[in-house]
Design a protein that fits this description.
With 271 residues, the chain is α+β, with helices and mostly antiparallel strands. The chain is 31% helix and 40% strand. The strands form two sheets. Strands 2-5-6-8-9-10-11-14 form an eight-stranded antiparallel β-barrel. A two-stranded antiparallel sheet has the order 12-13.
Amino acid sequence: MKNKLVLPYALVAAVAITGCNNPADNVPAASVNTGDKEEVEKKPKPGELVSYAIIGGSEINFIGSKAVGGEQPGGFRKFEGTLNVVNDELVAEGSKIVIDMNSIWTGDDKLTAHLKNKDFFNVPEIPTSTFEATDVKEEDGKKLITGDLTMHGVKKSITFPADVDVNETGVTLSAEFHINRFDFDMKYPGQADNLIREEVVLTLNVTAQRAASDAAADAKEKTDAPAEKQADAPAEKKADAPAEKKAAAPAEKKADAPAEKKADAPAKKKG
C-alpha cells in the first residue's frame, strides 16, 4: 500500500519539475546598456542608402512562462518598419520597427485581455512599442544589433545577436533572445503559488523589400544611362565632321578652278 502511494507523488513531482523549465535558458539574453559608457558619435557608412519596407508574413512572437504553469506563446499581428542597407550591409541609420500593441495575441483570450491592461502593457494609454537601431556590427558570424527599445513607456538600449541576409529580393532578419520585463516596469508577479517569470523570450522573423516605385526608378535609371551615351556621341560625329567636309571642299573647288580657266584661256586666243 505504501509503494502505491509513493508512485503518484513521484509523478506529480516529475510534472512539477518539467513545468519549471525556463524557455529563456535556451536563448541568449539581450544585454541592457546602462548608458554609463561615453557615447561615440556614429558616422554614416559611405555609400548609397537603400530602404526596404517590412512586408506581410513577417513575425514578432514571444514566450512567457510561469514557475509551474508552463509556457505561454504569443505575438503581435500588426507592425511596420524599415531596414536600411548600404553596400549590401544592414545599417542602423533609419532602421526601425513600430508595433501596434493592440494586435497582441495569445492562445487564451482572458490572458490577452490581461496583457493589455495596466498590469502589463497598458495598451489604452501606450498603444505602440518601438525599436530604433543605433548600431550594427559583426561578431562571430552574426550581426550584433543595438537600439532603443521603448515598451510600456520605458526606453532601454539593448543589444542582441541576429542573422541578417541581404540579397536581390530584399532583407531577411531573424533573431531569438530574451529580455527582462522588470526592466520595462512590468512587475505584476502572478499568483503566489504560480509566479510569472521575469524573462520573456522574443523571436523575430522579418522580411523587408523595396517599394515597387523605388525598384522601378532604379531600373529606369539603369536603362536611361546607355541611351544618353548613344544619343550624344553619334550626333556629334554626324553633325560636325561630314558637314564641315561637304561645305568647305566642294565650294572651294567650284569657285576657284573653273573661274581661273574661263578668264585666262580665251583672252590669249584673241590677241
